[in-house]
Please model this.
Amino acid sequence: MARLMLRIDLDGKGSIGPGKVRLLELIDEHGSIRRAGSTLKMSYARAWGLVHDLNETFGKPVVNAAPGGKHGGGATLTPLGRAVIDAYRTAERRAERAARPQIQGLVRRAK
Amino acid sequence: MARLMLRIDLDGKGSIGPGKVRLLELIDEHGSIRRAGSTLKMSYARAWGLVHDLNETFGKPVVNAAPGGKHGGGATLTPLGRAVIDAYRTAERRAERAARPQIQGLVRRAK
Model:
């Protein structure tokens, strides 16, 4: 099935796309930035960097990360983090529905 | 102003995003793959590669390129090339309108 991917640029304050949103969803699922990142074959530094970018974009944390210990400290989404996921997934669903005729037209032309 | 960028994945037959569409528009404007590419700071090989990808996706050319000479051969869009631009830009407009509440909500939360 054809898929639409969105990137939303926020007035020079950063951007939100499928990679960052999927990472947040996996942090919620795994309770760990490291494990979420490794599911996406990302280094810990890269995963942390994306979380940091989101924190900077919104001026407050999207993830609460407890200090790591032997087994890591655990990470949970903040309400802001959940709101970002919800807004993005809703935008994606609405955009996909609105653009469906054009997407299907392109699929029909593709060999 | 916040901007939505779309990438449309066509059932494993390739993808269409802002880079390829902008390149087609510039080929139309300049009549030259090389000049269109250089406007986007792309090498000729890279620009040609993107045109080639689109030709492969659709199984026929999106650009008619005359053989190059001293001044290059000139390039024009085919009707298919124009249809691809139209479908993408229409999809973008419709998606942006449909997702506007979510995009504006994210902009408001961004610091």
Notes: Chain B has five helices and four strands. The mean pLDDT of chain B is 92. Helices of chain B lie at 18-30, 33-39, 44-58, 79-98, 100-109.
